[in-house]
Amino acid sequence: MLGAMQDWTMRITHVIDHAAREAGMREIVTRWADGSETRTNWAGIRADALKMAQALQALGLRKGDKVASLAMNHSRHLVSWYGVAGMGGVLHTVNPRLFDDQLEYIVNHAEDKVLCYDAAFQPIVDRMKERWTTVEHYICYDSGEHSPAFEDWIGEHDGDFEWVTGAETDPCMICYTSGTTGNPKGVQYEHRSTLMHALAGLQPAAFNFSSASCMLPVVPMFHAASWGLPYAGAMAGIKFVFSAVNDPAVLHDLMIREKVTDSAGVPTVWLAHFQYCDKEGIDLPPLKAATIGGSACPRFMIERLMKNGTRVQHAWGMTETSPIGTVGGPTWDWDELSFEEKVDKTAMQGRPVFGVELRIVDLDDMMTELPRDGKTSGALQIRGPWIIKRYLKAEQDAANQDGWFDTGDVGIIHPDGTLQLTDRTKDVIKSGGEWISSVELENAAVGHSGVAEAACVGMPHPKWDERPVLFVVKGEGSDVTKEDILKHLEPQIAKWWMPDAIEFVDEIPHTATGKISKKDLRDRFADYKLEG
Ligand code: ADP
């Protein structure tokens, strides 16, 4: 027997319809690369998305066709998120920081037919055009010097269009992981998974939006669906402020002028903002909440933001998880905690939002489930309706038959459900049969004022199998010594975790998404020898 409620297909066109209807006047502000600013609102975004859907159909695109975007954060990019899905298409948000071979691979692999790009990325388009074999049309989000301009292109249509309907499980977006080894892998989000993920983002324990929220997302729209913010924000009818450039001076000015309450970005973005404020001798912007994720948020960052009156939402996730897995925010016992305890808790990766399940398993057999005791660490697995089942065009599932997807992360789960990431399975250091967290060592090291960046790698050791070696980039003008760093580490970590060596380097290699690339570091120091 069936229940007796109405049919309502979970498609993301509902999201933009709702935003336009219930928060139609709420503003969407864009600060463009050339310094100009424009204002539209949710009703305007929907009206343009309808026109874009018509324009795509006029080019001959049909349901299931792929449209690529090569763009920073701005209102026309937002229009594309809804316009492409509204015509039944799939938006492939391309990361412009990828290397040429990766750019070639992903656009051809996704079979993108149209590519919408920022004028700032014209050099990439010029370089790659010959290599992108499936792209038939190029549209420029800014001027129309080399390709039709987006506004002119959609402006030829009247917006009198019915959203294309279909199944909840139709795809609506593709994001590729940057892939530290081999080719990037495509993760294909569905209407249903996207909608449910956005709802999860609305939980008070996650983004905690109200209709009064004003969000400036620094996390790019091309990275892991911008953490679902453009969808969750539409559901809550919040104001968005977008900046097509990531210069801290520009972001700071926008945050003050537009009365921004919320922002989201990786730790390096916040670091750049701190440095800017220190240089100018000004206060941090009075944000209510800062979502920080993508890599571990260091303690000093949490402390400084909390002292600024900003709630820190430390989130963990990955492209394969849409990306929200866990988010940290005030817990039930928050008022009873000291400031230090609050910082300690926030430095962990938060608790799972409703909808996803986490577990840790034995690193040796990758099967045996381990206790959630706040002490035992293991390989982190996740399952849920917005977690990957299979990579685009892959022959085998990425998740096992029970839905558990192996994240490649290593962590501890506390009895209250808080996740504490300790490493990546590839980077954790095995010394004399015991595990050492390279990440904890790095975090402790960057707490020294003379250390700009640190990366810890396990190096082969004749007696212990592996021992930690810490690579350090000194801060500008710093004369920090190896002894200083060891002294700084001593009270923070177990004795047997102390690095066997500290090596000063000019720079530490990074991936296209700005994370430390330990693979490159290991390659660079392939002949490194530790004494027995
Ligand atoms: P990439 O394209 O660089 O793989 P992802 O965003 O998919 O980008 O990377 C996901 C990985 O980033 C996670 O598996 C984890 O290792 C790391 N990560 C994400 N958030 C956090 C966090 N809050 N703390 C520590 N590591 C994190």
Automatic annotation (TrEMBL):
A Pfam entry, by short name: AMP-binding
Q: What is its EC number?
A: 6.2.1.44
Q: Which reaction does it catalyse?
A: 3-(methylsulfanyl)propanoate + ATP + CoA = 3-(methylsulfanyl)propanoyl-CoA + AMP + diphosphate
Domain AMP-dependent synthetase/ligase per the UniProt entry, residue ranges? 18-392
Main enzyme class: ligase
**GO molecular function term, any single one:** ligase activity
The answer, when asked if Mitochondrion is one of the entry's keywords, is: no
Ranges of residues in domain AMP-binding enzyme C-terminal: 440-515
Q: Which UniProt keywords apply?
A: Fatty acid metabolism, Ligase, Lipid metabolism
Which BP terms from GO are recorded? fatty acid metabolic process
Q: Which family does it belong to?
A: Belongs to the ATP-dependent AMP-binding enzyme family.
Q: What is this protein called?
A: 3-methylmercaptopropionyl-CoA ligase
